[in-house]
Amino acid sequence: MARTKAVLGAGARLSDLLAASLLARVVPADVVHAVLDEHGCNSQRIRSFPAVAGVYYCIALSLYPEAAYEEVFAVVSQGLAWASGAAQPALVGKSSISSLRSRIGPAPLSDLIKRCCVPLACLRDHPQAFYAGRRLVAIDGSTFELPDEADNAKAFGYPSSSTVTAGHAGYPQARCAVLIECATHAILGANIGAFSDGERGLAAPLLSRLEPGMLCMADRGFNSFELWRQAKDTGADLLWRCGSTWKLPVQRVLDDGSFLSVIRPTHVPRAQADQQALTVRVIDYELPGVDDAPSRYRLLTTLLDPQLAPAMELAATYHQRWEIESVFDELKTHLRQSRRVLRSKTPELVRQEFYGWVLAHYSVRWLLHQGASSHRIPHAELSFKGHVELLRRTQPPSGAFPPSEAEKATALVP
Asked: In terms of Cα–Cα distance, which of 166, 139, 143 is closest to 156?
């Protein structure tokens, strides 16, 4: 049976979003132009589909995962034409869209994340986003499925599966690592690699996003002396769960029951390891009465003073790391409407689509943050799914009001 091309509903127009200056405020057009210029892929002459529109299009793909390429482009181009006072653009075919996407590549969108995806919470309005004056952030990894194309399979690989006759799962998978602000769920950094790439390696480039005044949390899968050292060198404080393989000699027991120890690099001479040793504080605790909970949790932290950061407070704070699991759910379930795989059929366009996906998520979180800040309420009390729908459907027709008036409105979706 022939497939019916998916189209956008009458109310789902990205032009509405652009007219209200929301997406352009998150990812400003002048920044897009600057990044495209730096990568040598900006349009050198007026085109029906300029490169800057191609970047917004890559973000819109994740806002409208159910729609055909041409339909998504139509609302992007209409919004840009309205903003510039130009005539409505001609329709562009799928091959032209793919050609521009290939010319842009993934690097400009990756750079836009670095420039535009900044922490959102402030201590005055959202004290729950901080502990001891430090912004709570977390790092973790996940996987997602890709179209079953030979190039994708070669670049990203399959997860092994004993239940599949051919020895692997039905779709290739990519692995990613992200750094988030826990309270706002804003993604501050993202990296993508093959399924076989380790989370530690994917996380390493994200450490440059850490800075003094942050408290970074991570699960035991990130246990590594070198990764710890790199993260600590950024000036951020760390609170990581520790694996059982690390030997942590007790140096001094503190008043709250935690103790000071040292960690050393491995595979180096003992004298060199002693010279590079780092002091850490170790916190052991249990969660009695919690089904399937480990018998003991062990945390490592750079916060060495028990008066500043008591052990029980740090143990309670650490469990905010689980907010990152909600971020993955927002990405995979609510933003993509449970669409099983990404769209792109080549590795470079998969990477581009991934970074556009992250920018789309940040745009929704930015909008939600405006309501949370205006009304001084926790971000968790507002609906991510509702704000996705707000971006898709509830703006008035483009041109009904100028951007200066639209910016006065504050959305609040409970």
From this structure: 143
* Number of CB atoms found within 10 A of residue 103's CB: 14
**What span, in angstroms and rounded, lies between the C-alpha atoms of 50 and 79?**
13
365 DSSP β-pair partners: none
**What is the phi-psi region of residue 87: left when phi exceeds 0, alpha when psi lies from -120 to 50, beta otherwise?**
beta
Instruction: List the beta bridge partners of residue 178.
Output: 140, 190
Bridge-based pairing state of the strands 134-145 and 214-218? parallel
Nearest to 359 by CA among 19, 22, 8, 15: 22
- The model's pTM is 0.86
CA distance 42 to 52: 7
Pairing outcome for strands 237-241 and 134-145? unpaired
Q: Regarding predicted confidence, which is higher, 45 or 305?
A: 305
Q: What are the extents of the domains in the chain?
A: 1-104+383-414, 116-327
359 close to 112: Cβ distance less than 8 angstroms: yes
Q: Which residue has the higher pLDDT, 47 or 243?
A: 243
Q: Cα-Cα-Cα-Cα dihedral of 391, 392, 396, 397, to 10°?
A: 130
Q: Tens digits of per-residue pLDDT, 355-400?
A: 999 999 999 899 888 877 777 777 777 666 666 666 655 332 333 3
CA angle 219, 152, 172 (to 5 degrees): 55
Angle at 36 between CA 34 and CA 39, to 5 degrees: 110
Q: What pLDDT is stored for residue 379 in this prediction?
A: 76
Beta bridge partners of 169: none
DSSP 187: E
Instruction: Find residue 160's DSSP bridge partners.
Output: 168
Quote the pLDDT of residue 188: 98
SS3 194: strand
Measure the CA–CA gap between 364 and 350, rounded to whole angstroms: 21
| pLDDT tens track for 245-263 | 788 999 999 999 999 999 9
Measured distance CA(374)–CA(391) in Å, rounded:
18
**266 contacts 242 by C-beta, under 8 angstroms:** no
